[in-house]
Prior knowledge:
Rossmann fold, 7 helices, alpha/beta, six-stranded mixed sheet, 23% strand, single chain, globular, 3 domains, disordered N terminus
Amino acid sequence: MRSKQGAIALVVVLCMAAPMIAGIHRLQSARTGNQQQDKSDERAAEHSATGQTRASMAVADRVKLESKLVSVAVTVSDPDGRAINGLTKENFEIFDDGVKQEITLFNDDDAPISLGIIFDVSGSMNGIIKRSITALKSLFETCHDDDEFFEVAFSTRAQLVQDYTPSSSEILNRVLYADPKGATALYDAVYLGIEKARQGHRARKALLIISDGEENNSRYSGGELGRLLKESDVQVYAVGISDTYVGAGTLKHLTGMSGGRAFFPAEDQLVDIYSRISLMLRHQYLIGFYPTGSEAGLRRHKLRLKLNAPKGLGHLLLSYKDGYQSFQ
């Protein structure tokens, strides 16, 4: 009888406990579910934050890529053509269409160069070539070991007479025994020189014209050559060799458009001028910026550089390319 009553009591207890156990189980399940939901929400939030971060990084990268660096090679010299080195970033200010820009690149390293010699062997150079070649040797005396050279000779037509070489003697020998004659295709020679210089393996690229500046037989017009000069990153220097300098204006115009400079030395100044040009090529400043604030849609931008030189240096000249084509 007692066993039967005990069994009945146990059943009653179990029946009463069952709802409690079920409630506890539901509570634990709810807690587990909430914890899982919380973790899921945390993962979703992390994923969203990561996605936003990546999106922000992608936008930043895109902005950086779309803002292309503009770099300008600058030569600073005194009125006699002596290169001035040792200046710092703080000595320069640069303006793009009148808007001052932040200089983000500044370099004055003595870097190797791809240099093209554009040599006039036309009839108007008769009696001048040999002494010019003798003086030209001084240009190569300060050359960098990694410099490379090529040569274009021109009279009635322009011709590549020496492809890229590290040997200065090969350049000199190509025109040493030239017989000056014929008309003068100066524009064609400079055009050919720019296209060849663009193929150079060095970051710095330049041409040196040795001529009296006469032009009377080119296929390319002055306008066509001017457009190529504006589009290229090749600086053009010139040594005017003539007793009358009838072509001085032409040489000044071509070199000025490229950011270079023309010289018209007397015969006894030739060696010194070539040495100075070599040093000018060696000691250039590379200044760069990411354009901001300039008017949208412009195809060509006007650049202006201002030099805040240390006291005591006197009047200094800046040679640089004063514009660039829009990236758009």
